[in-house]
Amino acid sequence: MKRILFPTDFSETAKNAFQYALKMADSLQAEILLLHTFDMPIIDGAEIPINFKEIYDTLEDTQMAHFKDHIPDLKHIADHSGMGHIRLTHLLKSGDLTYAMKEAIAKQDISLVVMGTSITSNNWFDSLFGSHAGEAINALTVPVMSIPAEMEYRKIKEIAFTNLYREKDFRALQKLAVIASKYNASIKSLFVKKSNSEVTEEQIKTWEARCADLPVQFFVIPHDDVRQTIVDFINNQHIDLLTMLTEKRGFFEDIFSSSLTQKMAYKIDIPMLALHEEDVISDVK
């Protein structure tokens, strides 16, 4: 069975995001692995002998009890949403969240990460990059869905996919089409054609012809302000989920890199699904 990794700190942000994790699990016939991490205290043992194992065990027991205290709240949310049939398991780890997620993905056969992000819709693009969700998007090799703090669940009907008309974009679109079919959602492909773009009309037509069997509508918008064009597209097309193919250089980097003098508030209040370049090479799980 597929597994969705859901990191939680039991905050309201996490509880809101849990609704999306439940809906994704239901659509993909997956179970949810709840992950909670905690930090070990910094202890100076130079003056007195300290049994670090005893301290760790005590702290772990305390955190596990805290974890278990919140499980009923999550089960209540699941039951109230009609998702009580979704299997929930839990994992407690000490240390860095991103490292814990990497380890869980490697050992637990994770297909997707769903997580809340404490950022709000103001300055969404800039603040996401510095959040735990932004770190996960950069560091992990499975798709990551990040849910804004203020976001309450709404049905996914329209999915936007940022496109650069490359072979890897085609593979990503194929994978997204499988996800969209689970929601009976439509996909709207957006290519923001900057003035220095080398993509030709002939390339676009040839590429789109390959997608004739996919439920995708294509939009090519000439503009040099990529971020603002995406925001306008989301608002005008009533998008419920923004999807991007991440990579070390390229479209995703262009969105997040800007000087301090160029930063402005971008109103985004929808989830984002980051598909990873390494992941789309493989078959859809």
Automatic annotation (TrEMBL):
This is Universal stress protein. Gene3D superfamilies: HUPs. InterPro entries: Rossmann-like_a/b/a_fold, UspA. Residues 1-146 form the UspA domain. CDD domains: USP-like (cd00293). Belongs to the universal stress protein A family.
